[in-house]
Design brief:
0% strand; 63% helix; 422 residues
């Protein structure tokens, strides 16, 4: 099994925890509102997707589309059907956020906002990411073809910095042209925010605006990997105060910095402000992930080789440590956690509702909010620490579902393989 990038595995886990905490209104990691989750947390995953972009995919677009559809869309559509079936009795029971089971909600609504059945609403990101990556591929392929014709025309006078073969069509990845695409993507993102602030983003217009708004974070992931990562060496005692100071200033000037990516609304300040807070939020938690990675691997200093490990005398450090395995396991299953954690929350609330209705306890449980507000989180007696139970369950139960799904797929593949040998 290929060894995963530890820093980005940790960043994925952090991003997923922040999304869950945002849905629980558990703001302990927002640092007093200076880094509100909704000012960057979804964009962490867009950034990660850009970072792991494979330039060779541009040489096989059909294969790229099929792989992405199989990895992103197919499981989404399967689970969307399952949650649609669950929504039928819920809708009859008065749950207003459970939409009708129809063709629109099964195949169109996921791309328009993804909140059609409620319980899988957090997975709206999956179809959006798929569309974004498809549009991005079209743009890059077009620019690559233009660049390739220029390269062939000028021959060796056109410098290639990415080390790919002269005959290949991709002439963008890792070159200065990435900055031109960054400027172009940022421009369309700023345009989306500008239109939203003027009330021009609504209904079907949210679909293109959402993709426009997400595009800069995708490109920033590529820019970071190919052009900036080697320069990311600012000492932590300068790095963190700079980020906190920047967000503190933005909060003072513009007020709340949170926005809604899915609905492309709620933007404060200038049309550029959301992209600054996205950058600072990603930068903050990426550096935290780097530091945690060093601690887990036992490296003496940041960016040191894995051979420079701390001798603990009793516990193994590095790639086979328990912490590394746990992070990799959660990082692999962020898709499942995003898909199912709201359903887990609903299950927990259903238990409270049953106890409140039958035993006379939990008298402060709001049955109306339970049925009308998807994000209603009941905590007995207002004890906020109970939200930690939601958090752990929202992580671990979807993780278990993901592991069971992996096992079922593995067994199916093995069965087919064994059948083919007979």
């Amino acid at each position: 099994m290929k060894k995963r990038n530890l820093t980005f595995s940790i960043l994925s886990v952090i991003g997923m925890i922040l999304i869950i905490m945002g849905h629980l209104d558990l703001n302990v990691l927002s640092f007093g509102g200076i880094f509100p989750y909704y000012s960057y947390h979804v964009m962490i995953f867009v950034f990660i997707s850009g970072y792991f972009y494979k330039p060779e995919d541009e040489d096989d677009i059909i294969g790229f589309v099929l792989r992405k559809a199989k990895r992103l869309l197919l499981p989404y559509l399967i689970w969307n059907l399952i949650y649609g079936l669950i929504a039928v009795p819920m809708r009859s029971g008065g749950f207003v956020f459970a939409g009708e089971l129809n063709l629109y909600n099964l195949f169109i609504a996921p791309f328009m906002g993804g909140h059609q059945f409620g319980l899988n609403a957090a997975a709206w990101f999956v179809p959006a990411l798929f569309l974004l990556e498809m549009c991005d591929m079209v743009v890059r392929k077009a620019v690559s073809l233009i660049g390739s014709s220029v390269y062939k025309k000028h021959g060796e006078n056109c410098e290639r910095k990415n080390g790919r073969d002269k005959g290949e069509t991709n002439v963008i990845y890792g070159t200065g042209m990435e900055w031109l695409l960054m400027a172009a993507y940022l421009s369309v993102g700023v345009a989306a925010v500008w239109l939203s602030q003027r009330g021009s983003v609504y209904d079907a217009y949210r679909l293109p605006a959402r993709l426009m708004f997400m595009a800069p974070s995708l490109q920033f992931g590529r820019i970071y990997r190919t052009r900036l990562e080697k320069y990311d060496i600012t000492p932590w005692f300068l790095y963190f105060p700079l980020l906190f100071g920047m967000n503190l200033l933005l909060t003072h000037v513009h007020g709340g910095l949170a926005y809604s990516t899915v609905w492309v609304t709620g933007f404060a300040g200038t049309p550029l402000t959301p992209f600054i807070t996205t950058l600072t939020g990603i930068a903050l938690w990426h550096r935290v992930a780097v530091i945690l990675g060093c601690l887990i691997e036992g490296r003496l200093k940041w960016r040191s080789s894995e051979s420079e490990s701390v001798d603990t005398g009793s516990k193994k450090q590095g790639s086979d440590s328990f912490a590394r395995k746990a992070i990799d396991k959660i990082g692999i299953h962020t898709y499942d956690i995003m898909m199912h954690h709201l359903a887990v929350f609903m299950l927990i609330k259903a238990v409270f509702a049953a106890l409140a209705g039958n035993g006379g306890i939990f008298a402060d449980f709001d049955i109306v909010a339970f049925k009308e507000d998807l994000y209603y989180t009941y905590v007995p007696g207002g004890v906020q620490a109970v939200k930690l139970i939601y958090l752990l369950a929202g992580l671990l139960i979807p993780l278990l579902i993901g592991m069971m799904s992996d096992k079922a797929k593995e067994d199916l593949i093995n069965k087919k393989t064994d059948g083919g040998r007979q």
